[in-house]
Amino acid sequence: MVLCPECESDLDVEEEELDEGEILSCTECGSDFEVVGVEPLELTKVSDEDDDDDEEDAKESDEDGDY
C-alpha cells in the first residue's frame, strides 16, 4: 500500500510495480508525485510552478520569433 504524502490516502498502486520517473496522482487531494526512488520508495511532489515555467519559456520563444 502506498500512501499519499499530502493527505495520507491510499494511492491504489503496488509498490513493487513502480519504477523511477513514474508520476502518481492522488484521487483524493489531486496532488501529483514523481517516483524518485524505489527501494525505499521515495516520492516528491510535482509542483505546478514547473508547468508555469515551461509555459513562460514557450511564450518567450514565441515573442522572440516575432521580431
Structure description:
With 67 residues, this protein is an alpha+beta fold. The protein has one domain: Rubrerythrin, domain 2. 27% of the residues lie in helices and 22% in strands. The protein is built from 1 helix and 3 strands, in the order E-E-E-H. Strands 1-2-3 form a 3-stranded antiparallel sheet, with no helix packed on it. Strand 1 and strand 2 form a beta hairpin. The chain is globular and about 45 Å long. The mean pLDDT is 82.
In short:
The protein is of the alpha+beta class. 27% of the residues lie in helices and 22% in strands.
What's the CATH topology name? Answer: Rubrerythrin, domain 2
CATH secondary-structure class: Mainly Beta
Query: Class by helix and strand content?
Result: alpha+beta
- Biggest β-sheet strands, sense, barrel: 3 strands, antiparallel
Average pLDDT, all residues: 82
Annotated CATH architecture: Single Sheet
Lateral arrangement of strands in the main beta sheet? 1-2-3
Task: Tell me the span between the first and last alpha carbons.
Answer: 54 Å
Rounded Rg? 16 Å
